[in-house]
Amino acid sequence: MKIRTLLIALMLFTLLSCADKKTADSEKPEKKKISVGVVLSVGGRGDNSFNDSAVRGAEKAEKDFGVTVNIGQPARLAEDKKYLNTFAAMECDLVVGVGFLMKDSVEEIAAKYPKVKFIIIDSVSKGDNIRSIVFKEDEGSFLVGAIAALKSENAKIGFIGGMKVPLIKKFERGYNEGAKYINPDIEIFNRYIGSGGDTFHDPVKAEQIATTLFKNGADIIYHAAGQSGNGLIKAAQQEKKFAIGVDSNQNYMAPGWVLTSMVKNVDEAVYSSIEDIIKRQFTSGLHILGLKEKGVNYALDEYNKELLDSSILKKIEDIRSKIISGEIQIVENTEE
């Protein structure tokens, strides 16, 4: 009888202990899930370029770290601020402004929500809670300009920009200098789609410009025009000439007709910023990414490897080393 009583007492003690533990566990506050808001440039997803690169970085972080990602796609420039404010009001841990056109809006909303961290891509915004990420697009563009000059049979190449602003002029300047480093006498046609944010999602206009340049003798055209560049790639395929992609690796879009792409690693910049939030290592201020920091590069893959022979690649790698060492310096245009 004493043994049975002792066993019952032990069972009751065990059950009560488990119940107490369950109650204690249920009272522990759940760890807050990190959330990120990403406001894309006008045109949104599907540009195969700048916006899609930012989305790739956020979605990779979502997969790797389990963060919650919210994507905002403004239909027009005036909506940027609305999305930035919405995500900050939701108490997202990080709000990302994708594009230089959001500079002022990021500054304004970040000042309203000092506890929220922000990053701005391609511009510099002032604020203790803002990380400004800019790239040395002229360095990557110098490489693809050199590739264009080495590959061109007509010694005539082209460039199509979205709108004529300092950022896009950096692409043009680097491309032109890279081409002339190889061939000082090369002829370069520089064209712009227009003014305003809409120029970055007007593939029809870009196709028209590209077709005209190809018919005027250009055999390679590089673009810095976001979604509009899809029109250039279409024209290159139709005219059996070469396009050079931008921001994302666009080689796959027309295999054999995209000579290379000037890759700007926006995805990695977004991903690493989210990782810094998770690790509580986020720092504000200016972050500059060039060839040395692996922020820009040219794309080489199965879609274009047969277009660039070993002599071209050897020359380009030599140029890369000289840019990083400072032996080659890209001239800044003070008129921009």
Please characterize this protein's 3D structure.
By secondary structure, the chain is of the alpha/beta class. It contains ten helices and twelve strands. It has a six-stranded parallel β-sheet with strand order 2-1-3-4-5-11, sandwiched between helices. It has a six-stranded mixed β-sheet with strand order 7-6-8-9-10-12, sandwiched between helices. The N and C termini lie far apart (97 Å). Mean pLDDT is 90; it is low at 1-29.
Biggest β-sheet: strands ordered side by side in the sheet: 2-1-3-4-5-11
CATH architecture of the largest domain: 3-Layer(aba) Sandwich
- Gross geometry: globular
Q: Pairing-aware structural class of the strands and helices?
A: alpha/beta
Fill in the CATH topology of the largest domain. Answer: Rossmann fold
In total, the number of domains comes to: 2
- Please count the helical segments: 10
Order of helices and strands: HEHEHEHEEHEHEHEHEEHEEH
Distance separating the two termini:
97 Å
